[in-house]
Amino acid sequence: LSPGAKMGCFTFIKVMMILFNLAIFLSGGTLLGVGIWVKVDGESFLKIFGALSSSVLQVVNVSYLLIVIGAILLVIGFLGCYGAQKESKCLLMMFFSVVLIIFIAEVAAAVVALVFTGLAETLLTGLVTPLLKEKYGVNDTFTHIWNATMTEVRCCGLNNYTDFNNSYFYETHNSYPGQCFGVSPPLAHPHLRGCLLQGCFKQILEEIKTNAGVAGGVAAGIGALEIAAMAVSMYLYCRLDEK
């Protein structure tokens, strides 16, 4: 290519890099704002958007998840956009490094999820079960999310209804949550029939497996975007030496 054509290609890719990362930056700001909103006023968020049923997000803290993802997108968007605008090799290398770390972490997480599902269940049990015992029936937002989860996914607790043994709710009401059995008020003793005795982890895992094709397609798309972003940042980084 002639020098003019090379410069035109460089300029086009630079503009695309700026616009792409500007969109990422704005998306990160939006998620960060929503995460802070959920943290400060979770009840209003749930009333507006409804119960987040049939989702893994219901067994983790949605607000912190949104805040973390939003902050990461803000950093990535800033590094990519400002680095391309200022033609800064340092910022472009930082952008490449951050995206590479995230890509490696995603691949590692996917491998762990596929190979060590039992380990994931053990870790979730260690984290979520104590929260169920301590916060269910105490924290309104946490209780509402779990009630919606157990009703819509037709499950009880993370592993099964015994997760509520010795919990604040059981000690206070001397019963298990009615959502575990599709009735209200709660039952004093769980019956031994029906899918409601199944834990939410297995139910959500089954739903993920059912939609594995869609999830895999989304994951592949995200991975492709990350690889493309790293390739573009390296192209700009290398071309700066030739300018």
Automatic annotation (TrEMBL):
<dbReference type="GO" id="GO:0005765">
    <property type="term" value="C:lysosomal membrane"/>
</dbReference>
<keyword id="KW-0325">Glycoprotein</keyword>
<dbReference type="InterPro" id="IPR018499">
    <property type="entry name" value="Tetraspanin/Peripherin"/>
</dbReference>
<keyword id="KW-0472">Membrane</keyword>
<keyword id="KW-1133">Transmembrane helix</keyword>
<feature type="transmembrane region" description="Helical">
    <location>
        <begin position="214"/>
        <end position="238"/>
    </location>
</feature>
<feature type="transmembrane region" description="Helical">
    <location>
        <begin position="91"/>
        <end position="116"/>
    </location>
</feature>
<dbReference type="GO" id="GO:0005886">
    <property type="term" value="C:plasma membrane"/>
</dbReference>
<dbReference type="Pfam" id="PF00335">
    <property type="entry name" value="Tetraspanin"/>
</dbReference>
<protein>
    <recommendedName>
        <fullName>Tetraspanin</fullName>
    </recommendedName>
</protein>
<feature type="transmembrane region" description="Helical">
    <location>
        <begin position="12"/>
        <end position="38"/>
    </location>
</feature>
<keyword id="KW-0458">Lysosome</keyword>
<comment type="function">
    <text>Structural component of specialized membrane microdomains known as tetraspanin-enriched microdomains (TERMs), which act as platforms for receptor clustering and signaling. Participates thereby in diverse biological functions such as cell signal transduction, adhesion, migration and protein trafficking. Regulates neuronal differentiation in response to NGF by facilitating NGF-mediated activation of NTRK1/TRKA receptor tyrosine kinase and subsequent downstream signaling pathways. Plays a role in the inhibition of TNFalpha-induced apoptosis.</text>
</comment>
<dbReference type="InterPro" id="IPR008952">
    <property type="entry name" value="Tetraspanin_EC2_sf"/>
</dbReference>
<keyword id="KW-0812">Transmembrane</keyword>
<dbReference type="InterPro" id="IPR000301">
    <property type="entry name" value="Tetraspanin_animals"/>
</dbReference>
<dbReference type="InterPro" id="IPR018503">
    <property type="entry name" value="Tetraspanin_CS"/>
</dbReference>
<comment type="similarity">
    <text>Belongs to the tetraspanin (TM4SF) family.</text>
</comment>
<feature type="transmembrane region" description="Helical">
    <location>
        <begin position="58"/>
        <end position="79"/>
    </location>
</feature>
<comment type="subunit">
    <text>Interacts with SLC19A2. Interacts with NTRK1/TRKA.</text>
</comment>
